[in-house]
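so my prof wants the structure for this chain in the tokens format not the other one, which i didnt know existed until like an hour ago. anyway here's the sequence
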Amino acid sequence: MQFRNSLSRRQMLKQVARIGGACAGGSALSSRLLPLLASPTAEVHPLSARPAHYAPKANRAIMFFLTGGASHVDSFDPKPELQAKDGMIFHKDQPLVASPWNARPRGKSGMMITDLFPHVGSVADNLCLIRSMHGDHNDHFEATLHMHTGSNGSAMPGIGAWVSYALGTQNTSLPSHIVFAENAPYAGAQVWDNHMLPAYHQGMRITPGDDPIPYLKPQDNNPEYLQNRELGLLESLNRRHYQTRQGDSELAARMLSFKTANSLQRIAPDLFDLSKESDQTLELYGVSRDDRQSFGWQTLVARRMAEAGVRFIELVDTGSHSNWDSHSKITRHEPLARKVDQPMAALLKDLKLRGMLDDTLVICCTEFGRTAYGKKEGRNHHKNAFSCWLAGGGARPGQVYGETDELGLEVAKDPVHVHDFHATILHLLGLDHEKLTYRHSGRDFRLTDVFGKVVPGLVA
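here's what i got, hopefully its the right format
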């Protein structure tokens, strides 16, 4: 049976339904639909790898995001003066709060890191530690958006979407941009959304547990050969429908999602399965073979995905509650650090052993820091100074960049704004942040807006 080109997708589906009613069984239906299932002319995949602006130092990125505002003075920017002035009334009748964790020099670089992150401290010589970060917002929602999108509050594409848009992926059978998030952070999915970029650049969320990607397993009553034919028919109908709606990126993304989902059915179970990892690797990350939940499992799977060609992977440690927002009892940072410390250090060691650290950029950031003072032995939000770090991918190893004052309240040397941080990350990936633009509503948008500069001191 042949269908006229003038038929709409809805009309065609109605005809298919009538065919199904006239057929005695699935095999008869399949034979009648075979003319529709022929693959269209080969074309460039919209997520195929694209050249960078110049030779990149990093070919992929893995980003850790510590939700809620991790305290820099309790981790990567310890302050002896704060310890000496513990309890002194300082700001609006709030006392200075000494850190409960001791600091010590780490590695050959002698980088001072507290005992809150002993495992990360053990790989200090791989870190490019930025102590002079500063942002624009003291509000979780806005600061989280800012760190991800460069936006001062309005929703814009996230950094992973920008990297996907610029570079595509090294494996078109997998998404180019993946986010591990057991719970949504502040601002929710906006932080990994594509917004005005074509929709297939949005991050695909993976939720750790027994079912990381919902509906991944084929239905028992729909064998693979029949599912593939159904998908072939659907693609044929959608392509014809798309011809009448050229430029509809949402429709294009939905069409692509069927292909990617079909690929994931074959590939993802193996990526999630740790049975082929060595005992030494599992011990390094602190996971067991049947683990499908822990942050260590997420980090190890992220490494496997990076190995498989995924371009940008983010790991969100907690959600918009029970996070690093310790307004009372800064000691609540302890279990949060224990959750991520070993996996983050393990990733750096593992990548180095596999020869991947040189061209994999690892990023660790948070939305802002915390004050040296506070009530009930806690600390407040603090955008004026905080710490983030980079590792691998062309970042300068064993480097401490920038300084804060004696209490960690203000940047004293070599400030790095969030826009500068983004510009430098893009630079390491071979991208000029001023040239990476997307025209929308009559103007060119970019991750760094009209700001930002690459920080040469962070580049090896």
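also thought this was worth mentioning. DSSP finds twelve helices and 19 strands in the chain.
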